[in-house]
Amino acid sequence: MIARNATIVVLASLLAATGTALPAQAKPAGPNSPSPTTTAEAQHSLRAPVTDENFYFVMADRFANGTTANDDGGLGSDPMVSGFDPTRKGFYNGGDLKGLLNKLDYIEGLGTTSIWLTPSFKNKAVQPADNSAGYHGYWITDFTQIDPHLGSNDDLKALIDEAHSRGMKVYFDIITNHTADVIGYKDATRMPYVSKDEVPYRTADGVPFDDRDVAGSEDFPELDAETSFPYAPVLEEGEENLKVPAWLNDPTLYHNRGDTTFAGEDSYYGDFFGLDDLFTEHPRVVDGMKEIYQTWIADFGVDGFRIDTMKHVDDGFWQEFGPDVLKFAHDQGKDEFFMFGEVFDTTKDFTSQYTTRNSMQAVLDFPFQEAARSFASRGADAQQLEQFFIGDDWYTDADSNAYSLPTFLGNHDMGRIGGFVAADNPDAGEGELLARDELAHELMYFSRGNPVIYYGDEQGFTGPGGDQDARQTLFASQVADYLDDDLLGTDATHAEDNFNPEHPLYKTIGSLAEVTEEHPALRNGAHQHRYASEGAGIYAFSRIDTERQREYVVALNNSEEAQTAEVPTYLPSRTFKSIYGEGEDRVKSARNGTITITVPPLSAVVYEASGRIPASKAAPAVRLTQPTPAEGDNGRMLVEADLDGSSFYEVTFEARTAGGEWTPIGTDDNAPYRVFHDVAALDPGTPLEYRAVVLDNKGHTAGSGVVNAEAPAPIVTLQAPAENAWVRDAVKLSAVADPEKATNVVSFERSVNGGDWEQIGTDSSSPAYTLTDDIAALDLPDNTQLQYRAVLGESVSNVRTVIIGDPVVVQPDAVSVPGSLNSEMGCPGDWDPACDQAQMTLGDDGLWRLTVDLPAGDYLFKAAINRSWDENYGAGGGLGGGNIPLAHDGGSVTFTYDHRTHIVTAE
């Protein structure tokens, strides 16, 4: 049974051991008071089985064509039936699994230890509404067989067996969120989203219910396709049994609420561009998905999964799917089986929830991608990179940490690092572009995590980025848009095969893999912050081999001039030998342990110490600061320790509900020593106790006293209406709670012209709490001020003020439509708010418009004010809101922006 609340699994062991009852007359202890029990058990910082893989991420259709016999998937010559057209970037181009098998020498030559395949199951070859094909693998109809365009199940088995014989693993890209677009609705194929508050789910007997209240449980009610959903699902004749396994053909196992806007409630329940969104709260879906992917592990020996669209699936699903699939893999002898999810977000307090709260092993490190691009390509302040790595503590808990995160520089959705470097440095020469590209790879290989190479990056591929424009073929292309792309570090073009092992980036990546293989601490050693310059310049860190007590110093320079820095180390008066880069062959540390390092422009150097870190004579004193709710995640407590001393230390934190058993909650090996303890499942006010123990490099330990805290009350935040908005007739209210629980009930209150607050309604439908206030019935005059707030328990939200009447709009000087479609408009690159071709025109009706011709494709866009990102609006008119999707059939499209509501649309 899946836990109804999003946080129960994480603390299951803690609560099972302790319960939540407190001993009679329990007396609170003061901060760091002597522990009434034995000292916490010292542990080493966790290294999960996968911390040193070199991934090669490849889209099979775009890599190598091993045989032309399967190009059309056995569906004939019509591209709109077979999906095969090598001249179009949105169709199958001909690559297959045999092509991958034939090119394993090339892949292995990069130092690859794991191949990660985009989804390779049978897809709906063409979705007419999208005017493109399923070459990418994300439109699955049959989860039990390989897509015929790519080969057969036997071809996959041959690829896996050969990779295993070479010591390489094979990872599958899998999907649990959706299937191909097969389900339509009675009114139309695709419809706008309908919220749960507007139209709730109903049982087969017509009784309204909130799915979050029964998610994953045996109490989940029976549903009826005709009456349970906002839209009645319809299957076209001949497609009633299209999907495999057969349970996927039951339309009541899908959300059936219309298309998502990728924000709020509908990001969990809405269809992606019409793709059938699975009802992952339903226990049959959970069990079915586990069965599907366990079969691939048992029958084919797959070594791990990358999981698509993880943040769009409810937490309870992951809390059952992750542990159960992992246990199954271990039972099959796959001791190093590894799963990581796609959580497309750059804030660690959010991305880390999937490895802590949701019991998954790892997530793709999108925050790293942003930090690496900013440092290597944009010349960002080196101290920003230092702060980025300090934030790794968000991932530290009892069974996972940042050392296992797959790191990457670009991908098939965003674009390539070569394209980013070229876009960020439009006036740079070839040498500088190549150096910045290499610097990004050096950062990725020498810092914590598992580096991922996106196929083609090793050949200098660029492109404007975004979806289809980041999916060039390594074999000779016939796609006109690809033939226009420049390649870094070579005179080659996309009109020819690009499997050149002499390409400078291929050789650099291979050498990075060799260095890290020879010196494993550069991959899984403790990551110690050492130095960060103000502005562009040097960021330096150490990697510590904890067994050999050997220190490596890595220094990267993102400025265009050589830079020198004094970098602290643990070893006074010792020699450090260069093992990578163009720095001095040897440097010697001063008596205080600092070494003076000069790093050439846009490059990296690595030094290895000649001896062991001096043994600590005694463990330092350790004190806990007062735990507080973490900024950014009110469901986690920030627990931090202060240490005396300056050697290599590891600090283990433990927690318990008062009077219960102590449970480890994480070990940190880098100052500041801290963890973010997940307590969201506990009732507000639950007494908590914390303690810590420090382990030095000689095995000495010292324990802290015990500090007390309480599980925090939830915080409720009012997100709508917009501040100072003008309103008529009705006001739509929306609030969110942190931490989110299915049991939350939020009240909304209104004040008229500063008068008393009165409750106007409640909502218990998580994860978004909404209400519409019918103000027409109040019969209030124009310019009346209304104030709104939300209340959850003792928590009172921020206040939003609106004004009855029609607004006086002060129009901006310019409005543009930046997005992944700008290059198709004629702009030099995508996401350019200053591009002339993306500027809109103000009409007499007060609306801004832009009409352009675009090729068929899936795009993302926003509205930007005055040719800058300083003020921009996305989904729902939100300031800085999410990107707005556009599924376009090709031809003319008109964008319309209303500065009164900040809503931008495309028709």
Distance N terminus to C terminus?
A: 44 Å
Count the E strands. 51
- Tell me roughly what share of residues is in helical segments: 10-25%
- Name the strands of the widest sheet in spatial order: 14-13-12-7-2-1-16-15
Query: Averaged pLDDT, please?
Result: 93
Q: Could you say which overall geometry the principal axes of the C-alpha atoms support?
A: globular
Number of helices: 17
Radius of gyration: 28 Å
Range of strand content: 25-35%
Low-pLDDT sequence parts: 1-37
Structural class: alpha+beta
Main sheet makeup: 8 strands, parallel
Please, could you describe this protein's structure?
- This protein is an alpha+beta fold.
- It is 17% helix and 28% strand.
- An 8-stranded parallel sheet has the order 14-13-12-7-2-1-16-15. The chain has a 6-stranded antiparallel sheet with strand order 17-18-19-24-21-22. Strands 35, 37, 38, 40, 41 and 42 form a 6-stranded mixed sheet that branches.
- Helix 10 crosses helix 13 (430-446) and helix 13 runs parallel beside helix 15.
- The longest helix has 18 residues, at 283-300.
- The chain is globular, with a radius of gyration of 28 Å.
- Mean pLDDT is 93; it is low at 1-37.
